[in-house]
């Protein structure tokens, strides 16, 4: 498999396979690139390899990007390996309509048409919730795709709220120590860092609650402490 070529220029512009990537103001283009590659991996239903050249630091690296957004370094010529099973994939008995709908979402995401991808995913989530319930693994997995789209389009507050909801769902379905619950909580915390102060307080309290429930030692967990500190600064006196 040929590596996807990625280039980040000194001014912060990014290209994936020669195509420009929309980078929201103030956001590290490397983060946007990895989110886009994760969406591409989800669309292909398997890991992809990317050769990344960040000309800001002249860093060159080769990564395996998995559909759940996790990555691992690859040596030159090293083959891809199956990703760790942290996020359940849709069951085999899902309808053809679901698979077609998801492919349409991925195609819109790869085209950077996030408005269309958001609308398509919202419709699919409404159907999944009505059919299977909001805590079903397929609903939660699909919600993760919607959260990625929200983040990539610069809607960090909604991305935080979705990832928090997803973490709560996995904590109930698979346990607070499960890989999907912890991974989703980490995504929520990472998204919340980009939420403006004027919007961060309302989403910060639910985030802190799920982080505290999931962290093995919340009293010393750096993420829990950082979120709690920011909430205290944002809270009215």
Shape: globular
Average of pLDDT: 86
Uncertain residue ranges: none
Biggest sheet, open or closed, and with what strands and sense?
6 strands, mixed
Counting DSSP E segments of at least 2 residues, the number of strands comes to 6
Strand order of the largest sheet: 3-2-1-4-5-6
**Spatial gap, N to C terminus:** 57 Å
Structural class: alpha+beta
Q: Care to describe what's here?
A:
- With about 240 residues, this protein is an alpha+beta fold.
- The protein is about 55% helix and about 10% strand.
- A 6-stranded mixed sheet has the order 3-2-1-4-5-6, covered by helices on one side.
- Helix 1 runs antiparallel to helix 4.
- The protein is globular and about 50 Å long.
Keywords:
alpha+beta, 6-stranded mixed β-sheet, 6 strands, 12% strand
Q: Summed up, what is this model?
A:
The chain is an alpha+beta fold and 237 residues long.
């Amino acid at each position: 498999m040929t590596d996807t070529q990625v280039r980040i220029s000194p001014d912060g512009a990014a290209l994936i396979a020669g195509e420009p990537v929309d980078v929201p103001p103030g956001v590290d283009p490397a983060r946007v690139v990895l989110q886009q590659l994760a969406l591409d991996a989800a669309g292909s239903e398997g890991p992809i390899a990317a050769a990344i050249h960040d000309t800001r630091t002249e860093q060159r690296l080769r990564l395996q990007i998995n559909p759940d957004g996790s990555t691992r370094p690859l040596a030159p010529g090293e083959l891809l390996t199956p990703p760790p099973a942290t996020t359940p994939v849709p069951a085999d008995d899902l309808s053809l309509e679901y698979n077609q709908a998801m492919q349409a979402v991925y195609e819109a995401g790869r085209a950077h048409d996030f408005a269309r991808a958001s609308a398509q995913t919202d419709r699919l989530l409404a159907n999944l919730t009505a059919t299977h319930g909001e805590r079903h693994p397929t609903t939660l997995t699909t919600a993760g795709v919607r959260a990625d789209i929200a983040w990539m389009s610069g809607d960090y507050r909604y991305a935080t709220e979705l990832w928090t909801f997803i973490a709560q769902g996995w904590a109930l379905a698979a346990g607070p120590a499960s890989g999907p619950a912890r991974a989703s909580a980490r995504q929520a915390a990472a998204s919340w860092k980009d939420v403006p102060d004027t919007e961060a307080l309302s989403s910060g309290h639910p985030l802190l609650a799920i982080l505290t429930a999931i962290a093995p030692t919340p009293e010393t967990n750096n993420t829990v402490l950082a979120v709690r500190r920011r909430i205290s600064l944002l809270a009215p006196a």
